[in-house]
Amino acid sequence: GAGVSQSPSNKVTEKGKDVELRCDPISGHTALYWYRQRLGQGLEFLIYFQGNSAPDKSGLPSDRFSAERTGESVSTLTIQRTQQEDSAVYLCASTRIMGNEQFFGPGTRLTVL
Amino acid sequence: RKEVEQDPGPFNVPEGATVAFNCTYSNSASQSFFWYRQDCRKEPKLLMSVYSSGNEDGRFTAQLNRASQYISLLIRDSKLSDSATYLCVVNGGGGNKLTFGTGTQLKVEL
């Protein structure tokens, strides 16, 4: 079946612009996670959604970052007033059962000029 | 102390060598443990789960030591294609999210 998909695969934007990143999880996966990975560094947890529960936003680095998810479907991560330090690969992952194996999308490579 | 710690490497080994990676975790309540593999500029993919009794999958063996709070990955007869970054992953004890280590880089050479 289809895996996790993300769009766009690459995004180049100017400092100060807003960007929206999209994630389509695997059908039937109730939990969805967003991570950030800067070049040569590890994964940094941003936010997760579990069904209709309130999302865990504890990893969002600033109020410029927000994310939404409707039910158990698509999620969007929005970064407002982008800064050069936001340049990274943004990875989305989904899982059928919380705490178990996560399946990752290919990521969106964001470059802020 | 970081929640999950790994030696970043790189480990440069010849083809056919045996190599072992260790990882320590800080949350004694953690219940799930995994090793993921990440190739350069690719997304992480599950290599294997780690079970309490230890488990083996072909050339790969994973072990868990709860008392010392570390997990290990042993790769036997390493192949060029094993070159990647190996991520140690632990759930936080609350079962809600996984914490990823920063990874250990392996380079297998001819």
Structural class of chain B: mainly beta
Q: The biggest beta sheet of chain A, please?
A: 6 strands, mixed
Largest interface: A-B, 20 and 20 residues
- Low-pLDDT segments, ≥5 res of chain A: none
The percentage helix of chain B is under 10%
The gross shape of chain B turns out to be globular
Rg over alpha carbons of chain A: 13 Å
Counting DSSP H or I runs of 4 or more residues, the number of helices of chain A is 0
Mean model confidence by pLDDT of chain B: 92
Relative strand content of chain B: over 45%
Rg of chain B is 13 Å
- What class would the helix/strand composition of chain A place it in? mainly beta
Largest sheet of chain B: 6 strands, mixed
What is the helix tally of chain B? 0
Order of helices and strands of chain A: EEEEEEEEEE
Number of strands of chain B: 11
Strand content of chain A: over 45%
Classify the helix fraction of chain A into a percent range. under 10%
Q: Give the SSE string of chain B.
A: EEEEEEEEEEE
The N- to C-terminal Cα distance of chain B equals 37 Å
Q: How does this structure look, described?
A:
The complex is a heterodimer of chains A (113) and B (110). Chain A has 113 residues and is an all-beta fold. In chain A, 0% of the residues lie in helices and 47% in strands. Chain A has strands spanning 5-7, 10-13, 19-24, 31-37, 43-50, 65-69, 75-79, 88-95, 103-104, 108-112. In chain A, the strands form 2 sheets. In chain A, strands 2, 4, 5, 8, 9 and 10 form a 6-stranded mixed β-sheet that branches. In chain A, a hairpin with a 7-residue loop joins strand 8 and strand 9 (103-104). The radius of gyration of chain A is 13 Å and the shape is globular. Chain B is mostly beta strands and 110 residues long. In chain B, 0% of the residues lie in helices and 52% in strands. Chain B is built from no helices and 11 strands. In chain B, strands 2, 4, 5, 9, 10 and 11 form a 6-stranded mixed β-sheet that branches. A 5-stranded antiparallel β-sheet of chain B has the order 1-3-8-7-6, with no helix packed on it. Chain B is globular. The mean pLDDT of chain B is 92. The chains are: A mainly beta (113), B mainly beta (110). At the A-B interface, strand 5 and strand 9 of A face strand 5 and strand 10 of B.
